[in-house]
């Protein structure tokens, strides 16, 4: 599909498919066109080209409210004039579900998102996380054929986001929902989705299952976006992997921070492989985060165990953990 | 009690800023209105005589006038609101090419001099006019149509400004949950808009029920509202007691209506901030679904342009031929038109008066706005401010006729003998324009986050420097807009001016009214030409205002 605004093409010839019962995360930096993609699927933006099919049916000309694709917005978009129960009951009323059937369904959904007892609260009195839970319950109440989640957790703070991401995943699994999640946060995507599509500047870069894409990023930018801290070009990559069983030749590699494990040099004269000089030390949840200057490679991030004491200027040895290094352009399903 | 230091001005500074406008209001509003009322209730023998109420309410005519005022205002309010909603939707919600121009077209009537609107509808409906065959000349329907013509801008601008900034994603959310466009309107859009619509409607009702120039020119002797009745009683029948009674009744009604409007406006503002209605405009593409409102909006624009076109065409014709005779006559004083000055001279007088009035109104209005837009920490401070706010809105609803006549009878002796002073008319017009100026500037000042002033203070700015760097920067354009708005209003002011303008120096609206009242097609033609001239002038001023793109102009 293609979506344009005037002369700007927000979504440029993007093609994805989604199997029933799976959750697809569309991941990309802000402004890459992923939200527009979602709005086009919902029928809120006109297609400039291409088509959207659901279950074999072409959705061209089907208005938003007949698509059965409920959308959950970044900031909830709860209706301020309705209380929590009223918001969740809204799609039920539209379907003509009334009376006790409706009340039971509202209670069930409130329990699903862990908000029992919130029925009569006004949206304005809820915290950001609670609002998003209500928004999720409201979207699920519509029993959508496809659930659209537009950066559902981005407005929340980190710890809440992690907790809620797990809850969203549970809710989606329990209801066997088919869903598209749009986000710029890879942790959110990994926590919620089965499949991953990487978008950049309106184009689809890579598309596959979460483990696939994560293990085999298509290019350096994608790798960095997926949380790999460093990408090394072929000559440096070869030097870094010199001590590994398989030496990388002619490819770039991406490394997570944990790929380099620093330790003090026990005996100065004994060569143990990679060495470097500590340039910066900071404490982190999982030990020490270092920056190390390595001859012939440059400044690299590394970690050190919590009980290791290093100071700026110390010489350290660096062990390369193969599991935290991926070779780019090898085995990744690169689109086009 | 916590004292606010950063950014907040001390109460004494605010009191000083409020003192000047308050003094003005006391001398040039409370005093004349009070004098007018005293004339009616305090007989020469002394004491207070309220017998006038029983007497006036005993008259059948009073009942007729009250009833006519009420039902025409109510009907006009309903029609204006019903027509205004689709127009607001089309002009503020759809990505319609040329919508800026159309918004300006819709805004024209609101600043058209009331007398001109009256003349315009007469030219349309008079027996020789394009719609003469309807036989509506002198009919109540003409008054109703003129009310709608006049106030459509109030509804479209007020509702449009809110609608434009409604977050459309709330509607999107409802649509993805399965709501049809009608259900989206009913369950999402309308609840968000309703307070604003009600607020606008209450303002329209207020304007209709106190209209003067339109009713006087269109209603003739057959139909009168409370306002024209007061005029008739004071000027023609010299029954000051009855006029005072009606003024008091109108005062009470207007005060109640102002309270209702203020309440509705506050509610509208509250719901807006609650629903986050400050999203940037996201106009929707024009689709076939918008056909119905588009057609309605087109009809409404035609309805607005029709009388204007008819006026212009009429001014260019005499005895069935195209001619500029009506315009050349504007420079002549003849026995037939029996004017004391030429129309061009009257225009010059109008312009001078309007400039003085606008400067005065904006100077006072700026002071008032600065004061009422503060957010004092104490409850008493807030209460004081809301009272002040209401007080300065009073001239909006008090009969301009009462003000004008009050000027005549109270400011005619020492220490304030202004009867022959040229300052009288500008001052009266400034009092009329003052509430509109405050309505334009105060919302802009209120919208400034107080933390900006606090930030300036923490960076070392004195309260005055903070005022300059934060408030003045934001308020410059609204200030210009307010000057233009006040200028346009003053140019067309008729109610108070009709009493105060000196016979040898009438303003243009007064001359137009004189011309309409004189027999002969030539005089009517001159009235049309003079109306065109006056409209072009106010229209040009308002076009300049519109270019400043200040949303609060003409929004209530």
Largest β sheet strand count, sense and barrel closure of chain B: 2 strands, antiparallel
**Record field, number of beta strands of chain B:** 4
Number of strands of chain A: 18
User: Termini of chain B, distance in Å?
Assistant: 34 Å
Order of strands in the sheet with most strands of chain B: 1-2
The number of helical elements of chain A comes to: 9
The class by helix and strand makeup of chain A works out as alpha+beta
Order of SSEs of chain A: EEEHEEEHHHEHEHEEHHEHEEEEEEE
Q: Distance between termini of chain A?
A: 15 Å
Helix count from the secondary structure assignment of chain B: 22
Low-confidence stretches of chain A: 331-336
User: Runs of chain B with pLDDT <50, length 5+?
Assistant: 1-8
Rough outline of chain B: globular
Q: Given the helix and strand composition of chain B, which structural class is it?
A: mainly alpha
Give the biggest sheet of chain A: 6 strands, mixed
Rg measurement of chain A, Å: 24 Å
Description of the structure:
In chain A, helix 2 (84-94) packs parallel to helix 4. The model of chain A is unreliable at 331-336 (pLDDT under 50). Chain A has helices spanning 34-42, 84-94, 99-112, 128-141, 158-174, 186-192, 210-215, 220-225, 234-240; strands spanning 3-5, 8-11, 23-27, 53-54, 57-58, 69-72, 146-150, 179-183, 195-200, 203-209, 230-232, 253-255, 260-264, 274-284, 287-294, 298-304, 315-320, 325-327. In chain A, the strands form 5 sheets. A 6-stranded mixed sheet of chain A has the order 6-7-8-3-9-10, with helices on both faces. A 5-stranded antiparallel sheet of chain A has the order 13-17-14-15-16, with no helix packed on it. Chain A contains 9 helices and 18 strands. Chain B is mainly α. In chain B, helix 1 (11-41) crosses helix 16 and helix 5 (114-125) crosses helix 22. Classes of the chains: A alpha+beta (336), B mainly alpha (556). Chains A and B meet through strand 6, helix 2 and helix 4 of A and helix 7 and helix 8 of B.
